[in-house]
Write a structure and sequence with these properties.
This protein has 153 residues and is an alpha+beta fold. The chain has a single domain, classed as minor pseudopilin epsh fold (3-Layer(bab) Sandwich), CATH 3.55.40.10. It is built from two helices and ten strands, in the order H-H-E-E-E-E-E-E-E-E-E-E. It has a four-stranded antiparallel beta sheet with strand order 3-2-1-7, covered by helices on one side. Strands 4-8-9-10 form a four-stranded antiparallel beta sheet, covered by helices on one side. A two-stranded antiparallel ribbon has the order 5-6. A hairpin with a 6-residue loop joins strand 2 and strand 3. 23% of the residues are buried.
Amino acid sequence: MRVRSDEDGFSLLEITCAVAIVALLAAIMLPIMPRRTSHLQLESYAVEIAALLKADRNAAMRNRRDVATKVDVQTRTLRSGAIDRMIHVPDDVSVTFVLANTCRGQRSESAIVFLASGISCGGVITLTRFGSGYEIRVAWLTGGVEIVPQHAT
């Protein structure tokens, strides 16, 4: 038979010290832990970029004038030519831009141009992380924008 004593369990001071140590370790470790782009966030970036490109295409057809989505390779950003919108791709995501050198006889290396008729000069933007990702394709003939998943092999 076990006799109960006043020393069973933990005191409030012991519990408070343990919680304080865990909180201190969390405060030190959280800033050190890298914040990485998840697969869902990668998909979200692909959808955002496709929406920006579609908005520029629609604006070109609606306003009957060419609209260029500017691409800055160094800063990893896309800027809409029709609306006040910019998308920055995080540094932990591998991004490649395949753009037309010329469009309608003019240099267009740093933009995807949508013409008033809805067609475009085309381009492909690829976002990858850990071997899988998404291609955002702009068809040159139709100006259509599509997202194609890319899976690791």
